[in-house]
């Protein structure tokens, strides 16, 4: 038998069918499994290949719509793409219980970093860079005329010395783009000038995902009459826990990102960039903390607030190439990246409220278990309306496992 080899020469040049065949052989996929790979869904084979390298298949996730959102007085339907049950329902429910969301955002300013090494006198170099700021900005400006036409472009240069290196920040207003391409190109373009000015050598030239100048905020009130004074106290206890303990704060923020990422993915945005930025911001200039704040107002109602960096775009990248992402942006009816970021902040706040309310009152397992039972029923082979019936029985018997689900499908009675 021939030895398996993952070093496949020219894999990227092969036709997609050939790549699928290689993977089928390598992994011993059945005919049925291999056929499944050929279904590219709404994305389509051509488009998939234009997006990434070495494509063998499309990959689908469900898109749900969170309802009940009013953002700055406007009704919104929110497309959310993720694999986890309960998140869409939780966001919808939190929005329903709220008095609506008020949002705001800063200008879409991204930071590009240029690392300079071998700079002899860092203090002198910082001053020299400041002196040549206008020239450097003009050089960066020449990179992206479209961005400049839409009112964006490079804005400022900052430099500081750390650990024997000189770190230069180029601040760029990227308008409705995520901005990575524009920022990275500008950093590369100005680095030879920086080398001339400082006598050093430019190494890394890349944007920072800690987009502290590009944040979105959302605020909401949950009235005492609607959710109950006891629930408010319980939620504030939950919040206190997250504010005091990093182990809890991490999970607290994960619940926020359930909503934020789901909208990022639905709209074709880079959710890893959003994740990296959010968690780093949670620890920016302080210990790792919750991205939200909760407190009571004078009337005793619960107020929730969130602020996080959101480097998301509505032009360029997958927002414009992925057919379903384009539709998601249309469903949201956003005018630009800032509005999208604000909506994402509101959804994150909603998911956080919902998680804390569930955790601090009845616990989240009851709701989860219903959906878990459905998954188990499907795994056991249930189809159509039987899925719901079997899930219900599993939940009633408090015995949610595939073995029991199979027994029910085969018509076996409960053991007494
Ligand atoms: C699960 O995806 C998210 C939660 O763990 C968030 C939280 O604990 O706040 C429920």
Automatic annotation (TrEMBL):
Record keyword Oxidoreductase present: yes
GO molecular function, one term: hydroxymethylglutaryl-CoA reductase (NADPH) activity
SUPFAM superfamilies found in the cross-reference section: NAD-binding domain of HMG-CoA reductase, Substrate-binding domain of HMG-CoA reductase
UniProt keyword terms in alphabetical order: Oxidoreductase
Superkingdom of origin: Archaea
GO terms, biological process: coenzyme A metabolic process
Keyword GTP-binding: no
InterPro entries given in the database record: HMG_CoA_Rdtase, HMG_CoA_Rdtase_bac-typ, HMG_CoA_Rdtase_cat_sf, HMG_CoA_Rdtase_CS, HMG_CoA_Rdtase_NAD(P)-bd_sf, HMG_CoA_Rdtase_sub-bd_dom_sf
UniProt similarity note: Belongs to the HMG-CoA reductase family.
The protein's name: 3-hydroxy-3-methylglutaryl coenzyme A reductase
